[in-house]
């Protein structure tokens, strides 16, 4: 089953639901970075959360970036998502091994750390990104995103983000849900949503059993009249390229490029998101220095 993402309304149009199956994307992230299980879960959750947060941006050049900076051994987790469903990300230290937590699950909070910050950079495509920062509440990703919405945007949010990893490090399933009451939502509907906070995790189990995203949502939000507004297919996409790296080198100026040439005889630029390296020999650097000087 391919990855999918949908936006819907429930409860007579008073509640917004964003949901996604990101299993293939999380698996691709694991393959690229060689993450061990707890870091696969952390990265997969962050990618899914960023995708759901970025979808409402709509502007083609917009994006949402999440930077989890905790005190855990995984270091920073950085993800970037665009409203067209493209996302990329990395874990600073992908090879972290921790015992299961008290619930018998991967200890994502222990890997990321329960103290630190979540920074959310929202670019609406107008060239003036907005950065919000809140303290981590658990390091488990979903709760931290819900806390960001409440504290930074005064938007109550129910969030579930889950990644199941097999003993051989394969990602078996990944996905998530964001539920947000809209302005004017009746109090009894908000009470109903709060009663579902502990059952959102069944979304992941439904995906594992082969359900589509819409079918999984119907198992949770029974008799709420789910109205699907939009669907798309999320996918991993890193936009680095030889040309982008050349522009980055040109931006440091001719003097710095000549210094690189004299000291190292070349340069190697590495993309953290896709683990690809770009090599520039002495001749290439001299050419870029001339371009920078011009």
How is this structure best described in words?
- With 294 residues, this protein is of the alpha+beta class.
- It has helices at 23-33, 37-54, 108-112, 142-153, 187-195, 202-208, 213-220, 242-251, 254-264, 282-293; strands spanning 4-10, 15-21, 63-70, 77-81, 86-91, 116-123, 130-135, 158-165, 171-181, 227-232, 235-236, 266-270, 277-281.
- Strands 7-6-3-4-5-11 form a six-stranded mixed sheet, with helices on one face. A five-stranded antiparallel sheet has the order 8-9-2-1-10, sandwiched between helices. The protein has a two-stranded antiparallel ribbon with strand order 12-13.
- Strand 12 and strand 13 (277-281) form a beta hairpin.
- Helix 1 (23-33) packs across helix 2.
- The longest helix has 18 residues, at 37-54.
- The termini are far apart.
- The model has no long low-confidence stretch (mean pLDDT 93).
Mean pLDDT equals 93
What percent strand?
A: 25-35%
Dominant shape: globular
SSE class:
alpha+beta
Give the helix proportion (percent range): 25-40%
What's the total count of β strands? Answer: 13
- Largest beta sheet: what is the strand line-up? 7-6-3-4-5-11
Radius of gyration: 21 Å
Low-confidence stretches: none
What is the H/E string?
EEHHEEEHEEHEEHHHEEHHEEH
- The number of distinct helices, counting runs of at least 4 residues, comes to 10
Q: What is the terminal-to-terminal distance?
A: 52 Å
**Largest sheet geometry:** 6 strands, mixed
């Amino acid at each position: 089953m391919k990855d999918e993402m949908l936006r819907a309304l429930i409860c007579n149009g008073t509640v917004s639901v964003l949901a996604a199956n990101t299993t293939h994307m999380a698996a691709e992230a694991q393959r690229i970075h060689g993450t061990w299980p707890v870091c696969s879960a952390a990265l997969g959750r962050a990618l899914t959360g960023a995708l759901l947060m970025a979808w409402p941006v709509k502007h083609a050049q917009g994006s949402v970036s999440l930077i989890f900076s905790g005190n855990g051994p995984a270091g920073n987790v950085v993800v970037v998502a665009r409203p067209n469903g493209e996302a990329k990300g990395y874990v600073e230290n992908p090879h972290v091994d921790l015992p299961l937590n008290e619930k018998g699950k991967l200890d994502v909070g222990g890997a990321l750390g329960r103290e630190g910050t979540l920074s959310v950079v929202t670019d609406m495509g107008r060239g003036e990104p907005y950065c919000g920062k809140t303290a981590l509440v658990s390091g488990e990703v979903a709760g931290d995103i819900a806390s960001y919405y409440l504290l930074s945007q005064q938007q109550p949010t129910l969030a579930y983000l889950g990644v199941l990893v097999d003993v051989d490090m394969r990602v078996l399933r990944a996905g998530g849900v964001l539920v947000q009451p809209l302005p004017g939502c009746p109090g009894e509907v908000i009470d109903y949503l709060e009663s579902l906070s502990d059952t959102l995790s069944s979304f992941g189990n439904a995906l594992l059993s082969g359900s589509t995203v819409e079918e999984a949502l119907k198992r949770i939000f029974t008799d709420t009249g789910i109205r699907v507004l939009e669907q798309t297919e999320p996918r991993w996409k890193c936009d680095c390229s030889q040309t982008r790296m050349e522009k980055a080198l040109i931006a440091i100026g001719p003097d710095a490029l000549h210094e690189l040439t004299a000291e190292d005889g070349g340069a190697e630029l590495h993309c953290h998101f896709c683990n690809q390296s770009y090599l520039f020999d002495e001749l290439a650097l001299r050419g870029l220095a001339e371009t920078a000087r011009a």
